[in-house]
Amino acid sequence: MLEDFRLKVFMAVAEEGSFTRAAKSLGVTQPAVSQNIAELEKQTGAELFSRSPGAVTLTAAGVAFREYASRILYWYAAASAMFGSEGRWSGNRPVRILADACVTRCVLPRTLAGLLGVNPATRFLVETDTGETVPDLRLWSCPSEARMSLAEASTFLGILPAAAIAPKESGSETVSDLQELRPAIRLAVWTPFVPLLPADLSARIAFETSSIDAIPEMVGSASDLVGVLPALPLFPTCIRLPVSLPDLRRDIHITPSEEFSCTPLYPLLRQTLKDSLSRI
C-alpha cells in the first residue's frame, strides 16, 4: 500500500480536533500521533496546529498544508489502486483509446507520458478509427458553446484554448491583439478554426491545413507567418504570442466503456487528463 502515514495522522487530527480522538480513529497511541505531527512540523518548518487545553486547531500554515495533504493522499490512493495487484488492467492488454486528431496531438502525449513514467508496464493504444472494435475510452473535441446539455456536461473534461505562434525573434511577441500585426504578416490556420475567424483575420489567411503539426513547421521557416492552432507545448523555432483567442476554444469530452469505467485506472486517467488541460 502506497501512503505516508504522517499525512493520514495530520488529516485525522485536523478532522477530529484532538490528538486523543485522532489516535482512537487511527488505532494507534496518542504519543504516536504527537510524534508524527512533531516530525511533520519539523520537516515543514511550520507550526501546523495551535494547541490549547481541550482543543487543537489548524494554524494558517496548517490550513494551507491541508490542501496539499489531501491531494497527496488522493494520488497515493489512486496510484495504489492502479498499480497494486488488483488494479492492473486485466491480462496486461493495452487500453484502447479512440481519439480525434486534436486530442491525439494536443492532449494525450503529456498525459500518457506521465502515466508511463510511473509505470511503463501499462500500455495504451491510441487510434483514430477502431473499426468494429469497441474502444475502452473515447476522447473527442468540439467547439466550445455557451450552453451544454446534461449529457454533454457529464462527459466534459475541460477546455483546450487556441494559441497564436510566431517565429522566434520576429518581433511579434509584443503584440496583444492579432489585429495589431503588421500588414505584411499572414496567417497559417488549423482548418476547423477558419470559419470561426472574424472577416479581418480571415482576409490574412495564407494557408489552412488539417495537420496541426504542419503549422509550426510553416511558421518556423517563414518570417511573415503567424500560426493559429490548438494550444501545444512550445516548438523550438516558435514562440507563443500573448494574445487571447477565446472564440476558438475546444471542449474536450471523455466516455469510457462500461467495463473500463469500473476499473481503478479510469478515475486516475480522467483526473490526469483534467490536470493536463488545466496547465495548458
Can you offer a commentary on this structure?
The two termini are 32 Å apart. The longest helix is centred in the first third of the chain and has 24 residues, at 60-83. The strands form three sheets. Strands 4-3-5-12-6 form a five-stranded mixed sheet. Strands 9-8-10-7-11 form a five-stranded mixed sheet, with helices on one face. A two-stranded antiparallel ribbon has the order 1-2. The chain contains eleven helices and twelve strands. Helix content is 40%, strand content 22%. The protein folds into three domains: 5-83, Winged helix-like DNA-binding domain superfamily/Winged helix DNA-binding domain (Arc Repressor Mutant, subunit A, Orthogonal Bundle); 90-152 and 255-278, D-Maltodextrin-Binding Protein, domain 2 (3-Layer(aba) Sandwich), CATH 3.40.190; 162-248, D-Maltodextrin-Binding Protein, domain 2. It is of the alpha/beta class and 280 residues long. It has helices at 5-16, 19-26, 30-44, 60-83, 101-106, 108-118, 150-155, 199-202, 214-220, 258-261, 265-278, and strands spanning 49-52, 55-58, 95-99, 124-127, 137-143, 156-160, 162-167, 186-190, 205-209, 225-230, 238-240, 250-256. The mean pLDDT is 84.
Shape category: elongated
Can you tell me the CATH class of the largest domain?
Alpha Beta
- Named at the architecture level, the CATH assignment of the largest domain is 3-Layer(aba) Sandwich
* Cα distance spanning the termini: 32 Å
| SSE arrangement, N to C | HHHEEHEHHEEHEEEHEHEEEHH
What's the helix count?
A: 11
Work out the count of structural domains: 3
Average pLDDT metric: 84
Question: Looking at CATH, which topology of the largest domain would you report?
Answer: D-Maltodextrin-Binding Protein, domain 2
Q: How are the strands ordered across the major sheet? A: 4-3-5-12-6
**Residue share in β-strands:** 15-25%
Helix content: 25-40%
Helix-strand makeup class: alpha/beta
What is the tally of beta strands?
12
Q: Largest sheet at a glance?
A: 5 strands, mixed
Give Rg in angstroms: 25 Å
- List segments where confidence is low: pLDDT < 50 over at least 5 consecutive residues: none
